[in-house]
Amino acid sequence: MHELTLANNILQIINQQATLQNDGCVREVEVVVGELSGVMIEALKAALQAVIKGTNYENTLFNLTEVKAIAECTNCSAKVNMETLYSQCPQCHNMHLDIMQGKELFVKSITFE
Ligand SMILES: [Zn+2]
Question: What does the alpha-carbon distance between residue 69 and residue 59 come to, in Å, rounded to a whole number?
Fold first, then answer.
């Protein structure tokens, strides 16, 4: 399961940061999930809950924020809000859109107690 691998990666990042902070308690973790990253927020939330069981992060609050996918049309430069990877430009119906944001998935911040 894709989300479980991601959840484990996120946990690793938190672990590394916690070690740098002398194993301080992690209060909150902010994760940014692009609309086109292929990750279901609900599935990632469930996976995170599963991987933190029995760890120091059981009481950590995971804040998952979805980022809208925005692309620029290579033909008319219109900014397009992409709903799928196969969206087309609403103005000129060009299929070639440069994705500017929305494919990313990263840990934005980690807050320690
Ligand atoms: Zn266009």
Answer: 31
How many whole angstroms from 91 Cα to the centroid of ligand 1?
5
Residues near ligand 1 ion, CB 5 Å cutoff: 73, 75-76, 78, 89, 91-92, 94
Question: What confidence tens digit (pLDDT) does each residue in 57-92 have?
Answer: 999 999 999 999 999 999 999 999 998 888 899 999
Confidence band of 6 (pLDDT split at 50, 70, 90): very high
Looking up residue 98, the CATH number of its domain turns out to be 3.30.2320.80
Kindly give the distance from the C-alpha atom of residue 110 to the centroid of ligand 1, in angstroms, as a whole number. Answer: 39
Give one DSSP letter per residue of 68-105, joined into a string: -EEEEETTT--EEEESSTT---TTT--S-EEEEESS-E
Q: How far is the CA of 103 from the centre of ligand 1 (A)?
A: 20
Count structural domains, the chain: 1
